């Protein structure tokens, strides 16, 4: 198999190149390519992986051209420059490095706080201009001041820690911060209104979402303490920049330090030019240490996925370690095939699917297996579904997906059962993986069978009556269809029976209709795996 190929289209630390090479991945390092979307679109089709920072915009248009792409790796935290739904729909894993630059970014926020408190950038410019304006720059002391953190996740928590070291009082607004975690961090958890009213300095550390966009709106800014200073090292769009400019002009806000802007690159911005504004060009993560961390980490993660199937820090798929991947692989194939079996037999609207794991398989990454089962189930109905997109596609269509795990009970070390509930009926199909690593179907609607999945199959459910097998085989023989394997199951003599038959080549048109006329046949379906 040829080595997977990765394109690095942003200015990642060259340390990443070495890691890719060491791990058997071919790498093409074009640090400025991300800014040229036409060239990127022209060549992206050649690559299995794309490693980026924030300059490359992975839009749906780029993804349409990315026919071989399996993984996008963001050397950093925010993945807002990637169209995640479009990547997911194409089965492309999107991974980031959630911790590699957190300390550095928190340090930038603290540096911005000092820059504001002591007007360091303006004092520097004035001094170097030969002005020696000793009386112009009167700062404020940080000790004893209240810092209000909006978003107390990885970076917010580090900022809280450093601020406490500076003897600040720290309050935080974060709906997802538990009281226990707040206690651990030594921060006081408050509502947004209270934070706005009490904070001397506000620093933002949330992602940009529909809830956080303009979290510091004109109205919110009006509720802040007079003389407040505001720092944004998270994402542009969290603060209404026009309203903030007005609040700076009126003197209500004493200063603002921004690393991120509503439009980037920010070549112009409402905040620019105000004497109490400090700006940096999205430098939060820009230290040698952080860049080396994120580059090494993303190269390791992407290589592990491309060469071993291991998934770490994916934003659109559950994690799978390199050790788990080979054990999981045959079960992913099994789950997908069981789902596909059920999907091919489903003729009415799907309401829900339940995937039950019994025995050893119950201890594996069942979320990944469930995604595979749902992908298999939906694929006969929808062309554009894959293991990555299946859960969101099911959700969009109102199909309930349930997962259950059970202790081993029965003949198999591991058993996976896919139960599909449609508008008309409930149907279950179970399978296992034998020691040869091949998935096997062992139960259909409660009837035991032992069949492999083959490219071309016929499934028949019938009444268990003498003569059926002879007529069935003759019908196929007359149509020139060769039977490769034949698996039978029944509940009791003369009761319900099933046949799962592997045939060589396509089933010619008309044959199924003839099978359907054999006395006792209830259903005859072609299956493809
Ligand atoms: N300036 C730069 O170069 C960098 C910026 N960042 C950005 O910093 C931000 C924070 O990153 P992390 O701390 O790693 O993320 P995180 O996910 O660890 O923390 C985000 C926190 O925001 C909270 N949050 C979510 N919605 C909220 C809401 N409506 N109100 C209040 N809090 C809310 C979450 O509960 C979470 O605790 C991200 O937007 C990231 O992209 C990260 C690295 C570098
Ligand atoms: O790569 C960069 O410089 C930006 C980092 C960033 O914004 C992030 O990691 O979310």
TrEMBL record:
The keyword Metal-binding does not apply. Residues 327-445 form the D-3-phosphoglycerate dehydrogenase ASB domain. It catalyses: (R)-2-hydroxyglutarate + NAD(+) = 2-oxoglutarate + NADH + H(+); (2R)-3-phosphoglycerate + NAD(+) = 3-phosphooxypyruvate + NADH + H(+). One of its GO terms (biological process) is L-serine biosynthetic process. Pfam families: 2-Hacid_dh (PF00389), 2-Hacid_dh_C (PF02826), ACT (PF01842), PGDH_inter (PF19304). Residues 110-284 form the D-isomer specific 2-hydroxyacid dehydrogenase NAD-binding domain. Residues 6-316 form the D-isomer specific 2-hydroxyacid dehydrogenase catalytic domain. Keywords: Amino-acid biosynthesis, NAD, Oxidoreductase, Serine biosynthesis. Pathway: Amino-acid biosynthesis; L-serine biosynthesis; L-serine from 3-phospho-D-glycerate: step 1/3. GO terms for molecular function: NAD binding; phosphoglycerate dehydrogenase activity. Its EC number is 1.1.1.95. InterPro entries: ACT-like_dom_sf (IPR045865), ACT_dom (IPR002912), ASB_dom_sf (IPR029009), D-isomer_2_OHA_DH_cat_dom (IPR006139), D-isomer_DH_CS (IPR029753), D-isomer_DH_CS1 (IPR029752), D-isomer_DH_NAD-bd (IPR006140), NAD(P)-bd_dom_sf (IPR036291). Residues 457-519 form the ACT domain. Catalyzes the reversible oxidation of 3-phospho-D-glycerate to 3-phosphonooxypyruvate, the first step of the phosphorylated L-serine biosynthesis pathway. Also catalyzes the reversible oxidation of 2-hydroxyglutarate to 2-oxoglutarate. Belongs to the D-isomer specific 2-hydroxyacid dehydrogenase family. This is D-3-phosphoglycerate dehydrogenase. The lineage of its organism: Bacteria, Pseudomonadati, Pseudomonadota, Alphaproteobacteria, Hyphomicrobiales.
């Amino acid at each position: 198999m040829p080595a997977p190929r990765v394109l690095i289209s942003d200015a990642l630390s060259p340390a990443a190149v070495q890691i890719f090479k060491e791990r058997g991945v071919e790498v093409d390092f074009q640090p400025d390519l991300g800014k040229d979307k036409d060239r990127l679109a022209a060549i992206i089709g050649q690559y299995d992986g794309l490693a980026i920072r924030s300059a490359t915009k992975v839009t749906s248009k780029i993804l349409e051209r990315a026919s071989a792409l399996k993984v996008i790796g963001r050397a950093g935290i925010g993945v807002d420059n990637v169209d995640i739904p479009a990547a997911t729909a194409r089965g492309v894993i999107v991974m980031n490095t959630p911790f590699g630059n957190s300390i550095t970014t928190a340090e930038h926020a603290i540096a911005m706080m000092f820059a504001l408190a002591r007007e360091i950038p303006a004092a520097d410019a004035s001094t170097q201009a030969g002005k020696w304006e000793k009386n112009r720059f009167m700062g404020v002391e940080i000790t004893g001041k209240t810092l209000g953190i909006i978003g107390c996740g990885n970076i917010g928590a580090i900022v809280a820690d450093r601020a406490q070291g500076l003897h600040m009082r720290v309050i935080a607004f974060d709906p997802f911060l538990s009281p226990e975690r707040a206690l651990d961090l030594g921060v006081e958890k408050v509502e947004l209104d209270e934070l706005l009213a009490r904070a001397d300095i506000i620093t933002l550390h949330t992602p940009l979402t529909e809830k956080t966009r303009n979290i510091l709106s004109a109205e919110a800014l009006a509720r802040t303490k007079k003389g407040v200073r505001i720092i944004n090292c998270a994402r542009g769009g969290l603060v209404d920049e026009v309203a903030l400019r007005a609040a700076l002009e009126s003197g209500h806000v004493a200063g603002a330090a921004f690393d991120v802007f509503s439009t980037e690159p920010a070549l112009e911005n409402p905040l620019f030019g105000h004497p109490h504004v400090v700006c940096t060009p999205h430098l939060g993560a820009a230290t040698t240490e952080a860049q080396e961390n994120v580059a090494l980490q993303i190269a390791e993660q992407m290589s592990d996925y491309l060469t071993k199937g291991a998934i770490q820090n994916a934003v659109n798929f559950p994690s799978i370690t390199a050790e788990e991947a080979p054990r999981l692989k045959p079960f992913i194939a099994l789950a997908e095939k069981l789902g596909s079996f059920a999907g091919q037999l489903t003729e009415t609207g799907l309401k829900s699917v339940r995937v039950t794991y019994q025995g050893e398989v119950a201890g594996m990454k069942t979320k990944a297996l469930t995604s595979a089962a749902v992908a298999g189930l939906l694929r006969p109905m929808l062309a554009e579904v894959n293991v990555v997109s299946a859960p969101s596609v099911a959700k969009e269509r109102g199909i309930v997906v349930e997962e259950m795990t059970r202790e081993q009970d029965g003949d198999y070390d591991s058993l996976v059962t896919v139960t599909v509930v449609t508008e008309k009926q409930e149907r279950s199909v179970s399978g296992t993986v034998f020691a040869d690593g091949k998935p096997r179907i062992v139960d259909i609607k409660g009837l035991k069978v032992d069949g492999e999945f083959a490219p071309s199959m016929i499934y028949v459910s019938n009444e268990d009556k003498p003569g059926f097998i002879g007529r069935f085989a003759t019908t196929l023989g007359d149509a020139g269809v060769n039977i490769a394997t034949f698996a039978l199951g029944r509940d009791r003599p003369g009761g319900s029976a099933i046949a799962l038959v592997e045939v060589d080549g396509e089933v010619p048109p008309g044959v199924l209709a003839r099978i359907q006329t054999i006395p006792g046949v209830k259903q005859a379906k072609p299956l493809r795996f």
